[in-house]
Design brief:
516 residues; mainly alpha; globular
């Protein structure tokens, strides 16, 4: 009976955290969209393209940050499942040491590679080289503070404290908006440098907000007294090493594709690519936020040796994350020209098709996002990381070959969609190999259940965009699509047990806040 109550409590916590994170993402997304428009207006397409080419690696480090946090969170959540506080403390303190070392190594490598990047790979106008190098220096500082914040964000995730995560990220968005508004006070030639400096300052502030909160609230985050555990450090290093290798494949694809587009088409195409990456970054950020609600429970289940529950939660994560991303992605794909015009006013060439295809890529990646978490929870990630890295990075040489043959720029994103689907297939095969996971059950519980809701959303958007023309139609398209999609998800997109969890969760949340 107690175990059942614990599971109900866990399900309620997942739903509550998902609600908090969804609200946070909507707020930060709205602020970020407006901030990006201001930055594009004040910097201009060329400098905006340069910033995304040089400092875009900072945005990519959000993936590294999330991936490395998965490593620490896996061990913290796993040992919370075993109820071993001493191991939680050891994991945190040793991961803190490890990430300081990793941060120093990565920054050193980036410094060593700087001359090669600027002299060989980057196609930047001669009069902007000096500014670009300053941006690169600021980027290095952001890199370091982003990496050393990983153990603290992982501790928050393991503790399922989504409220403080939401607070920090909303503060970040507000600071970015203030920075964007302040650019008008600087001369055109200085705006790129000041924007980069202020953005670096946000990374430093975020680190201190996470660190001070964790050190003061959680006993396992005490960094004043620590003892190096060589065996644990070796285990963490091995696990983190595979995580970093896989994440560098993602970073290499995004940055490599930007360099290739810059090489063949120039910095103006990089402006469109930067807009697409802003959209992808916001949705990726959205996805990562939603994962924070599910991942701790999946990893705790593995720690409690409840693999059946772990696999069921991972399939729920695949479905729910796909649906929650599709809420926004499908109407945005149909209304992308109007949305970009409303957002940016002056829309760079290729931005519309780039953004549409990046949304398709993001949706395809969500189909198996929970399978990735399940693999990580087992600790057996070597084969997965190798296959996933190959599939993801394969898009870069393929795109280079296609561009050499004269294909247009948007083919880069078509290749990305195809390699994402390949990576998804690898995830399924690897999880089946290392656990008792059933691909047939996954098809029944996830893929088949998604067909009708997605079809109704697409049909709704198609009918509206093909039969009605009026100002701000994209708002109506989004609202009607979400309404139809939500109803279809509840009645046709969920399995019976998932619908029961949703019903109990909603009743629990209402009862909790009604009493207040």
């Amino acid at each position: 009976m107690q175990r059942k109550e614990n599971k109900n409590s866990a399900s309620l916590r997942v739903l509550s955290n998902t609600g908090i994170l969804y609200a946070k993402v909507l707020i930060t997304m709205g602020i970020s969209l407006y901030s990006t428009r201001l930055v594009l207006d004040y910097l201009g397409e060329s400098d905006f393209g340069i910033f995304n080419l040089i400092a875009g690696i900072v945005a990519m480090l959000l993936f590294i940050n999330a991936a490395m946090a998965t490593s620490v969170q896996r061990y913290l959540s796993f040992h919370k499942g075993t109820d071993n506080f001493e191991m939680q403390r050891k994991v945190f303190t040793n991961s803190w040491i490890l990430h300081i070392v990793i941060g120093l190594i990565i920054v050193t490598l980036l410094i060593a590679l700087s001359s090669i990047l600027f002299n060989v790979f980057l196609n930047i106008p001669a009069d902007r080289i000096s500014s670009a190098k300053k941006v690169y220096c600021f980027m290095l500082m952001s890199v370091f503070f982003t990496i050393i914040s990983v153990p603290f964000t992982a501790a928050l995730n393991a503790r399922e404290n989504m409220f403080w995560v939401a607070i920090v990220l909303i503060i970040e968005s507000i600071l970015k908006l203030i920075i964007a508004l302040s650019l008008s006070h600087f001369s055109q030639g200085e705006r790129l440098i000041w924007y980069s400096l202020f953005t670096t300052g946000i990374s430093i502030c975020s680190f201190f907000m996470y660190a001070l909160y964790c050190v003061n609230r959680y006993e396992e985050c005490n960094i004043k007294t620590y003892k190096i555990d060589i065996l644990l450090l070796k285990e963490l290093s091995g696990y983190s090493g595979w995580i970093i290798a896989g994440t560098f494949a993602w970073t290499g694809r995004i940055q490599g594709m930007g360099v290739i587009l810059n090489f063949f088409f120039g910095t103006l195409v990089n402006a469109a690519y930067g807009i697409a990456q802003q959209v992808a970054g916001m949705l990726g950020f959205f996805s990562a936020s939603l994962l924070r609600a599910f991942d701790p429970q999946i990893m705790k289940s593995e720690g409690m040796n409840d693999r059946k529950r772990m696999l069921r939660l991972s399939m729920m994560e695949c479905k729910f994350c796909f649906f929650l991303i599709s809420f926004i992605a499908i109407p945005f794909i149909f209304e992308m020209p109007a949305i970009l015009t409303f957002w940016l006013r002056n829309v760079p060439d290729n931005a519309v098709i780039f953004c549409q295809l990046i949304l398709v890529s993001t949706m395809s990646n969500q189909l198996t996002i929970g399978i990735k978490t399940a693999i990580h929870s087992t600790g057996r990630i070597k084969l997965y990381q190798i296959l996933d890295s190959i599939a993801i990075f394969l898009s870069v040489p393929i795109a280079y070959f296609l561009f050499k043959q004269g294909f247009p720029a948007y083919w880069a994103f078509l290749v990305i969609v195809c390699t994402d689907i390949l990576a998804a297939l690898f995830r399924l095969l690897v999880l089946r190999r290392i656990t008792e996971f059933s691909i047939l059950e996954f098809g029944k519980r996830v893929i088949i259940k998604e067909i009708i809701p997605i079809s109704t959303s697409i049909l709704t958007c198609w009918l509206i965009t093909n039969h009605f023309v009026f100002d701000y139609r994209f708002i109506a398209t989004t609202v009607f699509s979400i309404a139809v999609f939500s109803i279809s998800i509840y009645f046709t997109g969920m399995c019976k047990d998932e619908r029961e969890i949703i019903d109990k969760g909603i009743k629990g949340v209402l009862a909790k806040y009604w009493k207040r």
